[in-house]
User: Which sequence fits this backbone?
């Protein structure tokens, strides 16, 4: 059956939208009149508690299933097109993070539609919430009766430290009121907020390690979040509840719980305990395995320029493992490689956010790099680093499926071959892809768009390339000795004395 042409060419009026939400006109009728994509609205409507109360009153005299079929189902499809966005309009009534009447009505409306769709609607409870909203209009905000979800939302708003620092005293008082009230009811959201506050102290709660410990241990029985074990591990490791004397066995137990739940910090803290034999028999191989796995997982994030991770802490520990020979032979070059990556990642993360132990980690990395630099007799001053082959550098630049490298070469007046390498993708991106490059001999780690080399005494044979031996280019995705391959085809053979070029004038960036 064809749908009738709409008689609302100028768009739905507020009056008609109000009738639809009050079920004075069935929303299902609107969908019979016109397709969803053709519905126009002159002005979005701000839903009121009275609108939903009118619906709940009407449904009492309607056949079973009519509420879902005639009102809820159609509005599930078109409700967002007709209503104002309460988040954009709310003035939050002077209490940042506390929803006003419009936001709460919107949430009740969405919850009602969802519950009706799942067959779990408690219409009496919904009616009570709507009447509460109306009754609250003339009350002062701290005295209003908010349901648990509103209080939890308000508490979550202040999980952001900046929000808590900027809050008015009245907002802090209301926050504490909500948190303490819900803590008495064993609400995990409130208990977590208070436990984290007590862990280090903030504007709402003074630091109290013993209370933090008790709440965290209680939370472990209420909420499966593995971070509680991680925090308890730190409390016991630092002796916060034992007059400063570490309790290593307890620390090991709780870090193990955090690690089992996937907490990266718990995993590298466990590695520290195995390394030093604290609370557990010393085991270098387990320490190595834990850090090795973590490094592989988090290197992927660094390659993708996702800097908000614990990669600096993991790479620092990997560097220390290679420096001290923990579970393997000591290797200063490998140690410097990972230390430079840790330093670079830490610098990038600190540009996003600052963590409490960042400065001590930065100092430890600077000291480690200086020792390794001296041990390897490196100056980090050269702009031309010898014996740096493309294969050696690109082996730490993993290719995703469909990626490849482009090599361009041309001879200069000194009969040297100048080489530029870039990374590309066949997945549609036109721009060259940046590469994470780490050069211990140059004291360098960063994302770069290209690499430049000089090739002295070049030995070149071109197969799948454009141009001639003095000016050419080709693409490849693997290097085998002097052979450059694209799939199973040899593109070129290139040998000689390789030198990586660096531009010291631009802050140790590769040219």
Assistant:
């Amino acid at each position: 059956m064809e749908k009738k042409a709409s008689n609302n060419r100028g768009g739905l009026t507020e009056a008609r939208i109000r009738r639809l939400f009050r079920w004075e006109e069935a929303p299902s009728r609107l969908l019979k009149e016109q397709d969803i994509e053709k519905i126009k609205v002159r002005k979005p409507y701000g839903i009121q508690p009275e609108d939903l109360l009118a619906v709940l009153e009407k449904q009492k005299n309607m056949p079973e299933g009519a509420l879902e079929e005639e009102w809820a189902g159609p509005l599930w499809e078109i409700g967002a097109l007709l209503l104002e966005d309460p988040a954009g309009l709310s003035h939050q009534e002077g209490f940042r993070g506390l929803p006003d009447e419009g936001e709460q009505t919107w949430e009740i409306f969405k919850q009602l539609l969802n519950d009706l769709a799942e067959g779990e609607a408690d219409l009496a409870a919904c009616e009570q919430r709507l009447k509460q909203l109306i009754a609250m209009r003339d009350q002062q905000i701290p005295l209003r009766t908010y349901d648990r979800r509103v209080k939890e939302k308000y508490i979550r708003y202040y999980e952001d430290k900046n929000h808590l620092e900027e809050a008015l005293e009245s907002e802090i008082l209301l926050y504490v009121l909500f948190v303490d009230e819900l803590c008495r009811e064993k609400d995990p959201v409130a208990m977590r907020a208070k436990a984290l506050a007590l862990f280090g102290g903030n504007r709402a709660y003074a630091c109290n390690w013993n209370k933090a410990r008790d709440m965290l241990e209680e939370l472990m029985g209420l909420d499966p979040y593995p971070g509680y074990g991680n925090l308890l591990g730190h409390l016991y490791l630092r002796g916060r509840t034992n007059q400063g004397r570490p309790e290593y066995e307890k620390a090991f137990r709780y870090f193990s719980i955090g690690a089992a739940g996937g907490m990266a910090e718990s995993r590298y803290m466990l590695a520290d305990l195995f390394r030093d034999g604290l609370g557990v028999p010393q085991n270098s191989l387990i320490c190595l395995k834990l850090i090795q796995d973590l490094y592989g997982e988090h290197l992927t994030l660094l390659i993708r320029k996702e800097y908000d991770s614990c990669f600096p802490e993991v790479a620092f520990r990997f560097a220390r493992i290679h420096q001290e020979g923990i579970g393997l032979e000591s290797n200063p070059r490998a140690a410097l490689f990972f230390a430079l990556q840790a330093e670079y990642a830490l610098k990038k993360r600190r540009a996003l956010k600052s963590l409490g132990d960042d400065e001590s980690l930065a100092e430890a990395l600077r000291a480690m790099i200086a020792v390794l630099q001296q041990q390897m007799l490196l100056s980090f001053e050269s702009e031309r680093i010898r014996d740096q082959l493309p294969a050696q550098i690109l082996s730490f630049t993993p290719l995703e499926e469909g990626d490849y490298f482009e090599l361009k070469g041309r001879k200069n007046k000194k009969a040297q071959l100048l080489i530029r390498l870039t990374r590309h993708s066949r997945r549609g991106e036109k721009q060259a892809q940046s590469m994470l490059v780490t050069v211990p001999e140059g004291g360098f780690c960063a994302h770069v768009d290209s690499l430049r080399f000089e090739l002295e005494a070049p030995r070149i044979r071109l197969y799948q390339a454009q141009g001639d031996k003095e000016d050419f280019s080709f693409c490849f995705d693997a290097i085998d000795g002097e052979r450059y391959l694209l799939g199973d085809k040899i593109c070129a053979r290139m040998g000689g004395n390789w030198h990586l070029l660096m531009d010291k004038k631009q802050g140790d960036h590769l040219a």
Confidence is low (pLDDT under 50) at residues 1-7, 88-94, 505-511. The longest helix spans residues 332-352. The first strand starts at residue 384 and ends at 386.
